[in-house]
């Protein structure tokens, strides 16, 4: 029986030897077919282990040479056969792989590419992977660890993506197959694996990160140091799965790495950043891992944390309801490392120009602030300068995260602590980044903790150095800041209200056009409501004097851009009743800022504001206590000096503006409210203004001439109302007004004609005396001269004037019309006059 068995074995070997001879053929198809036939034969027969060993000894030289064959198809078939033989057919024995591994090293383990076919390289790596899986956790694989690492170091850098992917999986399995020995070669793989971190295919990046996660667990600190930066860079990956994998690997390191306590500061950011990721799945996965890390840390440090575990179980009083407080282990772990993390964050936030870096760092800052709680207090001086810079980032996402972090810090850090750092920074040179951070801290601070300090903050911000900026973003953030301060105020905070009022008026006065929708008078509405006042009037009543005190700083030096001038304009336009309650201060400022020596553009703006204010006279002077004094100063110190003729176009424009302002003051408007209610005040004013207005009627500017006529008419009406309209006044005025009928500008002529009925109404009775007869005749002659004007409008207006004139000298008017009718072209007009006189004869008889 044994002899037959031997003989049978020899026959099998001889048959296989004959087949192997075919591998020497020049025909590649023949060589490939031989490999196929060998596999079929070995699959179809039953062999003992000894027979398989003998067969292997006979054929391995030929079949392994197939892996070096010139024909790609033969090499591919050779790999397929050897994998079948070594992995599936032969029993476990390092004897077999002793021959195979060197060939794999030869084909894959060199810097220069030996195997040019990508697909063949992939098959070879898969072959290696199959061997590792087959010999996993056996001592027989240990001698080949170095060779396997030599191969994988190169294949993980392969240009073919599939080779990279399989290599990463192969490394993971190798590490798990030799858990006690892999550490000797682990560090050699770190840098090669890192090269796959930036591959364009996200699946490759994911596998590389997983691979690194396994390898680092077997490395010393040097390997971890080399891996940390590339891992951190993957936090900025655009693919959520990549970021999730980073969090997963970081969590595993935090849980399993032997020397993790020495590297917590560097490992924490890899996981904590994911807690604020924009993708919910990433946040959820990071959170679940982080909870495990915290619980393990708590268990490992149970002795040190025992007091906190027993007594500090309640949630702090002001903890945000929308947030879940991290477990004690998570908080303790972050507090342990917060100083190192803050320093690193500060560097990245301050210096990095990369969009992704700032996004992730700002997210990490939120997580750190949430976990560290009051533990971040002593590190604020390190992180705040970076926060000021980051707050000015162009990306809104970064700023939103920064604001959230600021609010959390404001919640946990004692107000006294952060005020000592933030306010001096603002004093050194404010920018809107300071304000964003300050606003966040105020918003986050509990009301009862921040209220005692609001006055200090508001007083600083109300200083002109800090609130008189014209920069768009600075104004915007200052507005947000005072709104937050108002939210924290109570009815008792009237002193704070004074500062906020000054800031609000300054913002409204200086706002950039881009901020029109953000900065408006609703700020004042918010302020009076938060202070418990009933209306905006009460606000102006309380604080207008404070604003005027701020404004009243050398008005003679104002220019059009002076902040105080702009603020003064707001007071003139919007203070309403409070205007009249502060007439003494306002008149003093007006006397200086409208002095002829002051910048012309600034004076012009103030004149415009004052003119608009006078249109609402009844309201602004409702509570006036010394209106007559104000009017006398206004005329003497402002209007008279400006209306005096001076050469130059600037002086001409000022005269026009002063005349406009005077017109607004004199016009009773729809409320029929007249400023001059006292004869004693009006008469001197009348006498001072009249000659200046006569001069103005001859001014180069037609607008000035037009306004002069209008103002004279308004003065006449006021004089009639006060009972001081005399014949001498009429005799002085009307000739000057009639001259404007010869004005070269039609607008002036038309306007004059419209005012003449008012001028000729209520004439002094002395005009009917013989002594003044010539004056009435002069008026009629002048009007009839212009009655023949080509303009129908002029004729109609003169007709209206003649109706009024008929009251005091209708007889002469009839005689004059009848005499000149044959000479005039406007015969219809003459007939209309005569008919009117006939119908209303009783008026003038």
TrEMBL record:
Pfam families: HEAT_DAAF5 (PF24573), TPR_DNAAF5 (PF25757). One of its GO terms (biological process) is cilium movement. InterPro entries: ARM-like, ARM-type_fold, DAAF5, HEAT_DAAF5, TOG, TPR_DAAF5. Residues 100-321 form the TOG domain. One of its GO terms (molecular function) is dynein intermediate chain binding. Gene3D superfamilies: Leucine-rich Repeat Variant. One of its GO terms (cellular component) is cytoplasm. It comes from the Eukaryota. This is Dynein assembly factor 5, axonemal. It comes from Agrilus planipennis (Emerald ash borer).
């Amino acid at each position: 029986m044994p002899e037959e068995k031997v003989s049978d074995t020899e026959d099998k070997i001889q048959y296989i030897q004959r087949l192997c001879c075919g591998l020497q053929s020049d025909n590649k198809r023949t060589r490939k077919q031989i490999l196929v036939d060998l596999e079929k034969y070995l699959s179809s027969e039953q062999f003992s282990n000894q027979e398989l060993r003998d067969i292997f000894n006979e054929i391995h030289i030929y079949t392994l040479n197939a892996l070096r064959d010139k024909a790609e198809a033969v090499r591919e078939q050779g790999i397929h056969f050897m994998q079948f033989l070594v992995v599936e057919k032969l029993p476990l024995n390092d004897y077999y792989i002793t021959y195979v591994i060197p060939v794999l090293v030869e084909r894959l383990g060199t810097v220069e590419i030996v195997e040019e076919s990508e697909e063949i390289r992939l098959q070879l790596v898969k072959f290696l992977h199959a061997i590792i899986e087959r010999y996993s956790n056996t001592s027989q694989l240990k001698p080949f660890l170095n060779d396997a690492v030599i191969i994988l170091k190169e294949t993980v850098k392969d240009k073919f993506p599939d080779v990279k992917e399989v290599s990463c999986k192969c490394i993971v399995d190798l590490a798990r197959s030799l858990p006690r020995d892999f550490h000797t070669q682990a560090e050699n793989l770190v840098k090669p694996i890192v090269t796959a971190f930036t591959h364009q295919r996200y699946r490759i990046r994911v596998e590389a990160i997983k691979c690194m996660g396994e390898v680092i667990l077997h490395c010393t600190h040097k390997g971890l140091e080399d891996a940390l930066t590339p891992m951190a860079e993957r936090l900025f990956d655009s693919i959520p799965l990549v970021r999730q994998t980073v969090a997963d690997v970081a969590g595993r390191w935090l849980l399993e790495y032997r020397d993790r306590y020495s590297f917590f500061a560097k490992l924490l950011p890899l996981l904590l950043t994911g807690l604020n990721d924009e993708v919910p799945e990433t946040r959820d996965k990071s959170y679940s891992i982080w909870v495990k890390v915290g619980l393990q840390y708590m268990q490992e440090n149970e002795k040190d944390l025992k007091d906190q575990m027993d007594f500090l179980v309640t949630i702090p009083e002001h903890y945000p309801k929308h947030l879940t407080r991290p477990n004690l282990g998570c908080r303790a772990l972050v507090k342990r490392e917060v100083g190192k993390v803050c320093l690193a964050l500060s560097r990245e936030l301050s210096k990095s120009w990369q969009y992704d870096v700032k996004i992730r760092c700002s997210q990490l800052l939120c997580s750190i602030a949430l976990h560290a709680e009051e533990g971040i207090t002593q590190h604020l001086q390190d992180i705040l300068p970076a926060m000021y810079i980051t707050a000015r980032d162009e990306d809104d996402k970064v700023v939103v995260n920064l604001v959230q972090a600021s609010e959390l810090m404001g919640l946990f850090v004692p107000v006294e602590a952060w005020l000592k750092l933030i306010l001096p920074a603002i004093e050194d040179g404010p920018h809107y980044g300071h304000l964003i951070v300050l606003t966040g801290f105020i918003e986050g601070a509990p009301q009862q903790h921040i209220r005692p300090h609001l006055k200090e903050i508001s007083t600083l911000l109300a200083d002109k150095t800090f609130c008189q900026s014209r920069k768009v973003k600075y104004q915007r953030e200052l507005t947000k800041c005072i709104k937050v301060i108002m939210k924290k105020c109570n009815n008792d905070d009237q002193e704070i209200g004074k500062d906020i009022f000054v800031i609000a008026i300054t913002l409204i006065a200086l706002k950039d056009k881009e901020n029109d929708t953000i900065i408006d008078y609703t700020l004042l509405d918010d302020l009076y409501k938060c202070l418990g006042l009933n209306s905006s009037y009460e606000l102006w009543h309380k604080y207008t004097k404070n604003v005027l005190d701020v404004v009243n700083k050398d008005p003679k030096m104002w220019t059009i851009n002076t902040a105080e001038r702009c603020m003064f304009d707001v007071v003139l336009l919007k203070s309403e009743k409070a205007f009249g309650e502060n007439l003494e201060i306002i008149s003093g400022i007006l006397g200086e800022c409208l002095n002829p020596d002051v910048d012309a553009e600034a004076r012009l703006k103030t004149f415009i504001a004052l003119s608009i204010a006078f249109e609402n006279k009844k309201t602004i002077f409702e509570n006036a206590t010394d209106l007559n004094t104000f009017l006398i100063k206004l005329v003497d110190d402002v209007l008279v000096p400006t209306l005096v003729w001076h050469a130059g176009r600037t002086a001409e424009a000022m005269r026009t503006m002063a005349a406009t302002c005077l017109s607004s003051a004199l016009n009773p408007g729809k409320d029929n409210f007249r400023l001059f209610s006292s004869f004693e005040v009006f008469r001197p004013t009348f006498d001072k203004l009249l000659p200046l207005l006569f001069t103005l009627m001859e001014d180069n500017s037609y607008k000035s001439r037009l306004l002069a006529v209008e103002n004279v008419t308004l003065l006449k009406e006021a004089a009639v109302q006060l009972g001081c309209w005399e014949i001498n006044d009429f005799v002085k005025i009307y000739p000057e007004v009639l001259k404007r009928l010869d004005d070269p500008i039609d607008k002036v002529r038309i306007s004059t004609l419209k005012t003449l009925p008012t001028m000729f109404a209520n004439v002094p009775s002395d005009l009917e005396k013989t002594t003044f007869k010539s004056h009435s005749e002069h008026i009629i002659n002048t009007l009839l001269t212009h009655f023949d004007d080509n303009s129908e409008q002029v004729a109609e207006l003169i007709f209206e004037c003649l109706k009024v004139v008929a009251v005091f000298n209708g007889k002469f008017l009839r005689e004059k019309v009848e005499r000149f009718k044959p000479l005039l072209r406007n015969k219809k007009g003459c007939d209309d006059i005569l008919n009117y006189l006939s119908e209303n004869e009783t008026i003038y008889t």
